[in-house]
Amino acid sequence: MNARRHFLSAAAAGTGALAASPLLAQSGGPGSVLSTLGRAEARALATNPSRQGGRYRPHTRLGLGGVAIGNGFAEASDAQSEATLAAAYAAGVRYFDTSPWYGLGLSERRYGHHLHNHPARDYTLSTKVGRLLTATNGALQDTMWQSPSPFHYRYDYSADGVRRSVEDSLNRLGVSQLDVVFIHDLSPDNEKDLGMPWEQRFAEAAKGAMPALTRLREEGLIKAWGFGVNCPQPALRAIAEADPDIFLLACQYSMLDHAEALHDTFPKIAAHGASVVVGSPLLAGYLAGRDRYLYDGKVPSWAPEKRAKVQAVCDRHGVDLRTAALQFADAPEVVSAVIPGARTPEQALANVASMSIAIPAAFWAELKQQGLIAADAPVPRG
Fold first, then answer.
1. Residue 33: predicted pLDDT
2. Cα 61 to Cα 333: distance, rounded to the nearest angstrom
3. How many CB atoms lie under 10 A from the CB of residue 165?
4. What does the CA dihedral 364, 365, 369, 372 come to, rounded to 10 degrees?
5. What fold characterizes domain 54-289+333-349?
6. What CA–CA distance (Å, rounded) separates 56 from 17?
7. How far apart are CA 283 and CA 305, in angstroms?
């Protein structure tokens, strides 16, 4: 067994049920969970060395993404969010990712409400810069968030904007430090909201945000910085022009869609000595039973057939799709964490339980034989 892979699940063993689950049936609405299938092994949740090649990596390879706790897709209560965070922490998760953008400050406030109870040295916390929030009692801008906090947002990738954003985040979170800061959504897919070509915003960040974050790292105020984006171009350009440590790449590496990241983006990031946090490893729920694909919700025309074929292989080998998708996303050496979201304690525990399932080698071999995953894609070694 690869020494990198010590998947848990003491706290979540109860979710490793062997009962059959419906074939990707749409399951009961927000917060519902499909059964975890397969043989669970009691293993500790996988951890990283604090530094790999001199660069910081998150404490645990399984993290918790903050979109759902920021009321992404559906509303969650404060109590439900606190219970979700508490369940993840109790199950061994020690990496927590959030952003001022998620719920316009709501996700950060909820994260901080729980994390301030724990010593900062015991977990990794990442947040993001690029948008500044301003309180308002007027109409809110149109966003994806359900019942967000009463803030307007504006883009600012300057050095002053970074410093203000970091200070604002610390105040909202109510914690003593940030470990990782990502430059957020400075990406081709976000040009309409950026209000200009992304390259113009990148030039602003190259003069402001990137040197400012490098200084914060050198001063020991943060441990690492990088980009949190949904397209590879900004991350690869940052490697050429600066010295980032870690990249949160959402929407780019999953069981259904991974060729470009595997063959181009990942090797270039690895050559720089940086690592990757895989965001949206479940495609915002599509690989966990939702008929919703990533953040705009629109399912690509090719996706249902491919998902059904992968599900059929899962059924033959007694593995659930969520478990296979999470372990697949975690397999490459360059990956330092995967951060599925969770709206409820049950979802958080199901994600943890998935990392303790022993998936047979024959399962991955069949996926490759059918061309459902790349022939050279790394897979877990049991």
1. 82
2. 11
3. 26
4. 0
5. TIM Barrel (3.20.20)
6. 35
7. 15
Please say whether the beta carbons of 258 and 377 come within 8 A: yes
CA nearest to 171, candidates 215, 209, 127, 208:
127
Helical packing angle, 159-173 and 209-218, nearest 10°: 60
Q: Are strands 124-129 and 180-184 parallel, antiparallel or unpaired?
A: parallel
Joined tokens for residue 236: 């690869």
d(CA 156, CA 163): 11
Average pLDDT, the chain: 91
Q: How far apart are CA 218 and CA 216, in angstroms?
A: 6
Backbone angles phi, psi at 47, to 5 degrees: -120, 165
Q: Strand, coil or helix: what is 298?
A: coil
Q: In whole angstroms, what is the distance from residue 208 CA to residue 339 CA?
A: 28
Strand partners, 103: none
Note the pTM of the prediction, 2 decimals: 0.91
Identity of residue 32: S
Of 252, 240, 242, 256, residue with least CA distance to 213: 242
8-state DSSP, 95: E
What is the domain partition of the chain in residue ranges? 54-289+333-349
Residue-level pLDDT at 41: 81
Task: Find, among 101, 76, 102, 156, the residue nearest to 343 by Cα.
Answer: 76
The more confident residue out of 314 and 7 is 314
Summarised one tens digit per residue, pLDDT across range 207-236 is 999 999 999 999 999 999 999 999 999 999
The C-alpha angle 78, 89, 256, rounded to 5 degrees, equals 90
Residue 123: pLDDT above 50?
Answer: yes
Beta bridge partners of residue 96, listed in sequence order: 64, 125
Please state whether beta strands 151-155 and 131-135 pair in parallel, antiparallel, or not at all (unpaired).
antiparallel
The vertex-255 CA angle with 318 and 309, nearest 5°, equals 55
For 60-70, what is each residue's pLDDT tens digit? 999 999 999 99
Catalytically active residues are 97, 102, 128
The 8-class DSSP code of residue 4 comes to T
